[in-house]
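Annotated sample (chain length 436).
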Amino acid sequence: STPLYSSAASDVYKRQLMFLGSPVIFAIGFAGLSYFFVKPGMTDMLHMFSHKFFTGMDVFIWLSIPLFIIAGEIMTSIGMTDRLVQFSRLLVGRWRGGLAYVNVVGSMMFSGVSGSALADISALGPVEIDMMKKDGYDADFAAAVTVSSAIQGPIIPPSIPLIIFSSLTNTSVAALFLGGAIPGALMGIAQIIVIYFIARKNNFPANPIKALTLVLAFKIFYNAFWALFMPLIIIGGIISGVFTATEAASIAVAYAIVVGICAYRSLSLKQLWAILDRAVRTSASVYLIVGFASVISWILANERVPSELTMLVETLDLQPWMLLLCLNIFFLINGLWIGDSVQLLLFAPLFTPIVAAMGVDPVQFGVIMVVNVMIGLMTPPYGLGLYLGSAISGQPLANIVRKSFPFLISNLIVLMIVTYIPAVSLTLPRLFGFLN
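Output written by the structure step:
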């Protein structure tokens, strides 16, 4: 039929451009543009391409993304990462394999600042990998732990991917943030369990803070307190209804600036200009994906693809658990070659109504989808987290992939737990009154 032909042709163009080495942003853009030339009679509607491109970006909640990016960049520039690493050493450094544990715990805490996995790798990676190498760890293992631990960041609130899912599906941001807290912590615990067995097998050293006194411990806690307090302000304000996610992001920026100037006294105007420059570049790429993905979403709606898929699911008489399994496999396969935000923008509006009609809560599905697409950051051949870890550590990609395999398995187990035990992601939203 015409709808299936047009949508399939657009998807073929997108895949061809990806394999030719085109940036994913423009691959999606050209795929959407091809629709207006492939389907007969659509050239007269070409103005819809630019209209949907700009209106897709003109959403109030999207403002929170560059603001959270700026807040994370400020926290990194003022030395917050080093303080969080030291605090993590205070907590878990005395255990065998201490610095590997520090890597995981540090990522769990830094997630409350950035909400981005790649920001986590970029900020904490150089510090953590260097410390682990000096302590006798293999560089490829250090990089594997860094990449694996970073993917929990966008699941633990505040989370940029959960904000994207919320805006696309009209699901409560506060409910999604609460829903991601336990699954994110589970991913960290699973990675800690993996490290425990690897540390015992390889006889990894402990790395406690030397000459630790009560005064030094208090100083380390005080230095890390400002970072630890930031997510409490953000999440507490959103849950209590004091401010929206976008307002929370602006408060996070103001808080980071105040901490950098008053508490740490290490933020200058020159640094702030460089921070804004990096944030603009990162945000521009996100907004381009948002705009082009909005065109694709309009095309799918125009071709009645969601209703066709709903009818297909009804015809196949799939049980909810079977549908979720199929979608997880679909997302994991797509995660081999496209990024996390792209999957959310393309597929969240498409599949959320379908699973909701089968009785799956959108909050649970949002957490499932975000956990799934985050795993894509550490799956070859196009896992961006792996490439970033390779660039930071200077290790071959193949070595990092091999060392990260046990962590990949642990993350997949957590994905299955989140998928088939709804209470994992729905208990906290219900306790706070966001769900019935």
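Annotation: The two ends are 42 Å apart (CA to CA).
Annotation: The CA atoms of residues 61 and 246 lie 6 Å apart.
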